[in-house]
Amino acid sequence: MSRDDAFLFEAAPYHDMRAPAKSPGRGRWKAWLLLLPAAGLVVAGLLVPLAATVVTSLTGKGGLDAYRDVVNDAQVRTALRNNADWLGLALVVCALGLGLAWLARGVGPRLRRLLVVALTLPTVTSPLTAGVIFRMIFAPDPGLGTVNALLPEPVLFTGRGWIWLVLGLAFAWQWTGLAFLVFHVGLANLPEDLLRVAGAFGAGPLRRLRAVTAPALFPTAAVALLIVLTAAARVFDLVLVGAPGSVQPEVDVAGLLWWRRRTVLGDERAAALAVLLTVTAVAVALVVLGRLRQDWPHAERPWRWPPQPAPGGPRGPRRTAAGAGDARWPRRVAAGAVTGLWAFPFVVLLLTSFRSPDAVATSGWWTGGYGAGSYGEALDGGFFADALWATAQRGLLAALLVVVPAVMAAYALTHAALPRRARRAATAAAVVLAVLPPQALAAPLGWALGGVLGSTLALSPVHAALLLPLGVLLLRNAFMSVPRPPVTRPVAPRRTARRSALARVVGEAAPAVATVAVLSFVLVWNDLVVSLLLNWPAADQAPLTMRQASRYFTTSAGELAAQGVLMTAVPAVLLLVTGGWLVRGLTQGVRR
Amino acid sequence: MRMNRRRALAALSGLAAAGLTGCSAERPLRVAVVWSGWELARFRRVLEGEPVTVYSAGNDIAALLRKPVAPAATPDVAIVPQPGLIRDPEIRSRLQPLTSQDPSFWRDLVTGPGDGQAKGVWFKVAHKSLVWYRPEAVASPPTGWEAWWALCRDRAASGRPPLSVPAADGWALTDWFENVLLGHAPDLYGRLHLLDPADWGDERVAQAFIRLACLWSIPGLVPGGGRRALVTQFHDAILDVFRYGRADMVAGPDFAWPVIDRYRSPGREARWFRFPCSAGERPPLLVGGDAVVALASSEERGERFVARLTGGEMRERLAPWARAGGFLSLGAGLRDDDYPAPVRPLARELRELRGLAESGKPGAQATGRSIAFDLSDQLGGALAGGDGQGLWRILTDLFAAVAVDPCPPGKAEEAARTAHAAAVEAAASRADGS
């Protein structure tokens, strides 16, 4: 959208006219101090290892030889092309989320709540579990696979070609919910008056979309876009468990290829491949960042988006209720269908998990054979339970290590007295760092952590470093929405005032802080990549245990289903308990 | 407030320290294995109640042996399926010499070229030259490769798929290749793991690829066609034959038995015949196995554990695993009747290699068979296995080229030559030093 569009100017009319609460001098270096923990973690956990990888890729045979070798490798090229396809799919998924959000506007609150739950639960499901579910649903044997049971002719969905459909659907099932959620809130807060004015001035629907709707939606959509694109750039577990071995070369992605071939490639070429993967991910981030620079609110102009409604004033639901009428029923039916469609994979997983392992291996879930045998097999010997506990410990520590530095850094970037340029640079750095693939860090980190690898908590700081940039971004958005009192230097002693200012911002933005904590925990809980790259000796991560069990898919499907249910239960409960907060935390960030 | 923070920090660092260094005096012995799923559960049951932690290192066992890792993750004992690792000088230097009662064929596999010391003892061995079949479908097993090929062709022509091939699992296809090659060129087979491009370029290697391509390209060979075989895993193939009766035979190692036994439909019998070879060739005996090693850092504890595990003291605990199938041992005090009937002769055969091979060279032909260890478990470099990698991939591609679409013999041979060229190239890429 162009800057000179008259409506765009109107789309963001809420300038903060209050006196800037800057305190140069002493306040400034304290702001730098607040950035320090986050910066320390990022430098030690991300930048130094990344630099080491880059250096490795350039030394050895010399110059860019390693890159030339890697780019000339047909397998690498296939993998990079596949990565590009995944990024394309991520855009489709975001568009689908927008479409569903539009659909959800016209349905009643109860159905909408169901729709939100059905769409967002997959987002907190591990990609490994998603892969397991979709491989079950699309099993080639009509006696086992749900979809093939419905077809007159069996289709080899897990074979070459068709496998893309299975993996793509699994990815869409997982991530559409996030885009949906963000757009849903965005659409509910569209500037109605402005749209009406635009209409009155003769702007057609397309122009209104371009000039008002899109700019209004983009700020909230940017983080969602970033998360979904990052997920696409890092696709790993889904492919690993979702495709049979013979199909793996076709669906290979750079991250997976790196893991499989790093020893064959040798240090330099493996490092070069990791750098290429990083460049791809960063390029994507920069595209998003380019949009952010234009559209995202700056800290100097505290963002009041979406505009706060007057008490009892018009909000999304009322508006739709007014304009609904006949259009409502088709929407309800469609929304119900979508809810059912999205809930269906969970139904299959749950039903499968409550069947005996032998029944699962030889018949479809609709044929009965119920019992708790699969759970017995999954929990046999207590090793999976131990792994769950170890995973939870690691997730909790990582969440703590993300939240504390992220809160301090986000405060420094919004309410403290950092120069504008430093804020922008730090924010841009956070966007770029948020997408770094663990493969780019694994080799140097493995070397540096050598002596502690394999212990339960050793990887928590690594996880924290990888998640911190995203946490800072989310919190920064939220903190910016916290209005500043006109005077931040009251009569009270400075120290107290500062502490209370931070406490007040955190209190106001509590939903966002909770979101960052929950998101960090869930991402560590579901992680397979980092544990596979760095924690292989201990193998006490629940997803690792699950992956080991997936070697012969058909005969271990019952056990896998039971493990998948247990793996999903924890994030699902977290999501349901903190649901309302998460929605706010992800979109607006503050109590409203 | 301050005290609280300090206390919290102290508690946290204590927690971290406890996590980072398993610091009790009589800590459990750590045993790293490569198994997962059923085998891992079985092995853990063997060691139930022992002061032992068993964990699976999966494909990373090599890195685990090679590099120092956290004390909490450093194994005292490891069970390794690739004897090449045990001969690797870098790894050897970190292992203890062990007293081995294994037959010389087995002992030589884990003995270093320089020091003459055995640094591994075989815990579990596998017989990989078998074809399992349903006797009601195959009245008399074929006598040789040509007869087998004719049987498959005739049966496929009559619309009954004779074989199920688990082409989704690369290792199953490499077992096919190794059996054919071992029967055809046993002396060459013994050198191929050295990755000399001249050896790999030998015409006899090409012949082995061609022989496979000729069989795999038979139209109607596998149920549902080649495309379905490519998504059929080892266990699925067993179910095809012994549960659903969709095919009559499946080539698979002795550890197919527990899967057959668990999933076969009631009353269905399972037998095996030896993997066939051509007239004038010695029948191949392809073996695999897992050897126990003790890391030097484990001192006598590790050595004692190995002795206990392989010396017969654990017989009572190993017998249930042996009875279930999927576990053959060279010793460990197990007797013939500890094994299920179908694999009893196999256990005896592997154990009797002892006396017969003692007199001959490794890979000896004293038994009238060509004996060799699984090749793909010994390959490194660009031929090393894994999904979509090395020899696994070359054979998967060959299968896809000849079994998916109708493939006349000329085209099959061409595909085999392509596969051969890919193998030679992969071997050469190692020779470049890259």
From TrEMBL, chain A:
Region (Disordered): 300-327
Gene3D superfamilies attached to this UniProt entry: MetI-like
Ranges that cross the membrane: 32-55, 86-104, 116-138, 162-187, 216-236, 270-292, 333-354, 395-413, 425-449, 461-480, 501-525, 560-583
Record's keyword annotation contains Transmembrane: yes
Tree of life domain: Bacteria
Presence of keyword NADP: no
Cell location: Cell membrane
Membrane-topology annotation of the record: Multi-pass membrane protein
Record field: compositional bias (Pro residues): 304-314
SUPFAM superfamilies: MetI-like (SSF161098)
InterPro entries xref list: MetI-like, MetI-like_sf, UgpAE/MalFG_permease
Pfam families recorded: BPD_transp_1
Keyword tags: Cell membrane, Membrane, Transmembrane, Transmembrane helix, Transport
Domain ABC transmembrane type-1: 79-288, 388-578
Family per record: Belongs to the binding-protein-dependent transport system permease family.
Official protein name in the record: ABC transmembrane type-1 domain-containing protein
Organism: Streptosporangium pseudovulgare
UniProtKB/TrEMBL annotation, chain B:
UniProt name for this protein: Alpha-glucoside transport system substrate-binding protein
Residue runs in coiled coils: none
InterPro entries found in the cross-reference section: TAT_signal
Signal peptide residues on this chain, from the entry's feature table: 1-18
Keywords: Signal
